[in-house]
Amino acid sequence: MSYTIEAQIRTEIGKGSSRRLRHANKVPAVIYGKGKEAVSIVFDHKDIIHIQENEDFYTSELTIALDGKEVKVRVQAMQRHAYKTLIEHVDFVYA
């Protein structure tokens, strides 16, 4: 199954801006990989909360629609809230 997530490039980085994004129901994330520059992104929490429940989400390639371009990635790590059903941050690697 293929998954597509709409995302935008994030210009403000840091703890404060990430907290503001989370309060606005957004998820801060980063895409990185060997030989490529890391890109900080943000997307809606509702876009990932249901698709991450599928097993193949963690093992298959995902498509991130990033400002008109499609980027193929894989999930590297995901940070969840301690007791709420919230995703706080996601690390992606270029596929």
UniProtKB/TrEMBL annotation:
Top-level lineage group: Bacteria
Domain Large ribosomal subunit protein bL25 L25, first and last residues per copy: 5-92
InterPro entries noted in UniProt: Rbsml_bL25/Gln-tRNA_synth_N, Ribosomal_bL25/Gln-tRNA_synth, Ribosomal_bL25_long, Ribosomal_bL25_short, Ribosomal_L25_dom, Ribosomal_uL5_bac-type
Family matches, as Pfam families: Ribosomal_L25p
Range of residues in the leader sequence: none
Keywords: Ribonucleoprotein, Ribosomal protein, RNA-binding, rRNA-binding
GO molecular function: 5S rRNA binding; structural constituent of ribosome
Keyword Ribonucleoprotein on entry: yes
Keyword Zinc-finger found: no
Gene Ontology biological-process annotations: translation
UniProt GO cellular component terms: cytosolic large ribosomal subunit
Family listed: Belongs to the bacterial ribosomal protein bL25 family.
Functional note: This is one of the proteins that binds to the 5S RNA in the ribosome where it forms part of the central protuberance.
HAMAP family for the chain: Ribosomal_bL25
Assembly description: Part of the 50S ribosomal subunit; part of the 5S rRNA/L5/L18/L25 subcomplex. Contacts the 5S rRNA. Binds to the 5S rRNA independently of L5 and L18.
Stated name of the protein: Large ribosomal subunit protein bL25
Gene: rplY
